[in-house]
Amino acid sequence: MTAKADDKTFLPAYRAPRVWWRVTLFWIWYTIATVIYPRFSSLVFLRRFADKPIQVEGLENLPTSGSFVLAANHYRGAITLDVIAAILAAVQQIRPEVLEEFTLVVGQRASKRKKKPPIPARLTKKLINYSYRRWSKNVLRVALGNERASIKALREWKMRVKQHPALVFPEGKARLVFGNIRPGAGRWLNSLGLPIIPVGVWWYNGGWHVRIGKPLIWSARPELYEVQLGLNIAALLPQELAGRWLDNLKIWQEVHREPTEQHELEKSC
């Protein structure tokens, strides 16, 4: 792992290859499940089919009961469905009962198109909207750029997450290298009153890696929540994927470095 932190082209080793027969099989099953019986577990199984076992660290940081929120980097080294499947497959190892209840929170960007879109685009949009309606038990869309619709969706999520765990990507945009946290994301997550667990996910050396951090202990200063969230996620990623967070991360880790046994001994004397 020798790429520079600012290398946006990045190492091929961090990009998952697309196996087309698996992709085709998945989309056939996804279509059937959407129409007949939407279930997260079947999609995770198919997305993980024939893949190498996931390398998971930090499962002990997941709550053994109750609800929680996973805040992960929106990794773009493969299509998002692979990222979601890797994270949920990791969680399934210790909390299998929550898989069907998970809520995936996704942003819905407002269209900037002024003219009426062509017929194929309109049909595609209708199919996408139909799919989201069928998966509404597990997927919650938050409108971006529409304050009234966004507030309504966030209120629904706040009620839903009390009972069912959730997965969010606080960047709001998929990237290979970890990017900025959306303004207000940290404050909103803090307001939920639930364990917020940072997650780092990436593809490397032929397989998926999922690293789960300890639940956040929020700062007493709300203006630092987004920075705190970003640093906790960046700390779980390889340095090459930490992006713009890398320099501040080194300072933050030094400040929060656990004391050595010698230091503890000196303090007790």
From TrEMBL:
InterPro entries: Plipid/glycerol_acylTrfase. It comes from the Bacteria. SUPFAM superfamilies: Glycerol-3-phosphate (1)-acyltransferase (SSF69593). Residues 54-202 form the Phospholipid/glycerol acyltransferase domain. Keywords: Acyltransferase, Membrane, Transferase, Transmembrane, Transmembrane helix. The chain crosses the membrane at residues 20-40. GO terms for molecular function: acyltransferase activity. It holds the Pfam family Acyltransferase. This is 1-acyl-sn-glycerol-3-phosphate acyltransferase. It comes from Candidatus Chlorohelix allophototropha.
